[in-house]
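To close the section, here is one more complete example, presented without commentary so you can practise reading it yourself. The ligand is iron/sulfur cluster.
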Amino acid sequence: MKRNIEIGKHAGFCGGVNLCIKTLDEELEKSSEKIYCLGELVHNKDVVNSFKNKGVIFVDNIKTVPNNSKLVIRAHGAEKHTYELAEKRRMRVLDLTCPKVAKIKEDVREYINEESYIILVAKKDHPEAKSTISFLGDNASIIENEDELKEIVNKLNKYKYVAVIAQTTFDEKVFLEYAEYIKGNVCKDVNVMVKNTICNATSIRQNETREMAKSKDVMIIVGGKNSSNTHKLYNISKEECENTYWVETKDELNLNVLEGKLDVGIMAGASTPKNVIDDVVQAIEEYEG
Ligand code: SF4
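Output:
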C-alpha cells in the first residue's frame, strides 16, 4: 500500500538546540580539555551519546565537577545557585542557555519587587522552569494546573502588579486560558501584564501539529520520552487524531497500527535529530501492510 506521508515543516531541531550543538562542537574542536555538561544537552539519547563519544562528561550534580573545570550549561539554563557555585569554585562556564529562555527573566525584571507578583505557567519539575523561577525572587510561583491557578488567584489581590509568563515549551492554548482567568478574577486595582514567552518555534510546531492531525489517519510523534515539548505535541495531536503514537526512534514504531491507514503525519520535537526522523519515514515507506 502506497501511503501519503507528510512530514511537519517544523519537525525537529529548533534554533536554540542547533546553536547549542554547534557551539559545543566548536568548543571541542578548539581544545582537548575535559568538558563537563550539567544534565542531558538535549533530550535525545543519540545526540548525548555522540557527545559522550567525543569526550563530554555528563553529570547530574555540579558537586561532582572538579574545581576549575570547564562546565557547559545546556539550552534549558540552570538554577541561580548553580551559577553561584560554579563561580565560587572557579569553573569556566560555557553558557549555552537558549537566548529565548534567558530573555524571560529580563522580560519581568521590573516585577521583582514587593509590590509585584510573578506567575510562571510551567511544569514544576522542568529544568527550564526551575532555572527561570530561581531568578525571580520570593514573590513568584509556578502554576501547573487549574487547582493551583484557582488557589493563587485568591492571593493576588494584595499586589499592585502581576506578571504572567510561561515556560517556552508550554501549551500556548492552556497558557492563554490561564492568563485570561487571572485577568478576569483579580480585583480591578491589580494590573495584570501577560507576556507570552512561549517560543514561537514551539507554538508554530504545535499549531502545525494540530492542523496536520485533523486530516490524518495516523500521526507519529518522534522525540525523547523525557522531552516536555514532544509530550505536548503528542497531547495536541491526540486531541485531533485518536491514532497518535509517540516513538523515540524507529525501533519503537509498531507498524501494525498503519494497517489500512492511508494518510500519515509525522511531527518531531525540538531535540529530535533529522536522521531519527528520516529513519521513521523510511520504515513507514517500506512497510507494505
Ligand atoms: S524551543 Fe525555542 S526556547 Fe527552547 S531551545 Fe528551542 S529555540 Fe530555544
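Once you have examined the C-alpha cells, check your reading against these statements. The chain has three domains: 4-12+201-286, 15-98, 101-194. The two ends are 7 Å apart (CA to CA).
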